[in-house]
Specification:
single chain, 298 residues, mainly alpha, MetI-like fold, 12 helices, elongated
């Protein structure tokens, strides 16, 4: 059999194994009813984010109609209006984009940088490992919210700065997760075989090391997005996040706090949006953890 045929056969076997692994994970995930509920809820939220402009025009979330201010939910305004007469439903729909952008963006960038640092740390060990671990330990000593608030206060209040602050706070966590996942892998026989075959360190990290850490990363990332959305809302609630009149769930709560006793609907609906989104992601994370855990295979 020629070398080209062997390479083609090996590639096909890898593809089949990956497909089989995905299929098995999906079957196990599908058996978890609460995880499926989380998936459905998050899919609906994602659909709202994608089709927000079709659901309601963006301008409706910005228009201030004084005569309509502080109206309770009605056919004209499904979720009522705020103290400026702006439609809460429109602001909730378009605010979902900013809230999810911060949550997903912070986690995605944190995973990318943290994954690379964790891989380098676990693979090379020695001085490099100690340097990266001590650096992440230093950052993790600072409470997450305090670190984020400090960065935002120093850089200024904006969507980009909140995203940057969340990303910096996320990097040490993912560095630790990836490092702990790949440390047992570095001494495996197939890693030695890859070195002996002439593969570069970069090839080994991306082709053999990182794929073995993808399970814990996916689970942690899924559950962290909900936490990041809540943290972003908390920062906006304190007045240091995304600034009005830009619609964002936490900023909506901040604007509504002085009216919450007389007009409770102003805080109920943004609070429900944050809670349902975080709940859906946590349910999905629990389901993925069970589906990817080999000890739970039946």
């Amino acid at each position: 059999m020629s070398t080209a045929t062997l390479d083609s056969y090996s590639a096909e076997m890898v593809r089949i194994r990956k497909k089989s692994r995905f299929g098995e994970t999906w079957v196990r995930f599908r058996k978890n009813k609460t995880a499926l509920i989380g998936l459905v809820l998050f899919s609906l939220i994602l659909a709202i984010v994608i089709f927000a402009d079709l659901i309601v025009p963006y301008q409706a979330s910005m228009d201030q109609v004084i005569k309509d201010r502080l109206q309770a939910p009605s056919p004209a305004h499904l979720l009522g209006t705020d103290n400026y007469g702006r439609d809460i439903f429109a602001r909730l729909v378009h605010g979902s984009r900013n809230s999810l952008l911060v949550g997903l963006g912070a986690v995605a960038i944190g995973i990318t940088i943290g994954g690379l640092l964790g891989s380098v740390s676990g693979y090379f060990g020695g001085f490099i490992d100690n340097l990266i671990v001590r650096f992440t330990d230093t950052i993790m000593c600072i409470p997450l919210m305090l670190l984020v608030l400090t960065i935002v206060a120093a850089l200024g209040t904006s969507l980009v700065n909140v995203l940057l602050a969340m990303m910096i706070a996320n990097v040490p966590t993912y560095t630790r997760i990836v490092r702990s996942a790949i440390l047992p892998v570095t001494s495996m026989d197939y890693i030695e075989a890859a070195r002996a075959s002439g593969s570069s360190n970069l090839q080994i990290i991306f082709s053999h090391i990182l794929p073995n850490a993808i399970g814990p990363i996916i689970v942690q990332a899924t559950m962290a997005v909900g936490t990041m959305i809540i943290n972003a809302a908390s920062i906006s609630f304190l007045g240091m996040g995304i600034q009005p009149p830009t619609p964002e769930w936490g900023a909506m709560l901040n604007e509504a706090k002085q009216y919450m006793l007389q007009y409770p609907y102003m805080v109920i609906f943004p609070g429900l949006a944050i809670g349902i989104t975080a709940l859906s992601l946590n349910l999905m994370g629990d389901g993925l953890r069970d589906a990817l855990d080999p000890r739970l295979k039946d």
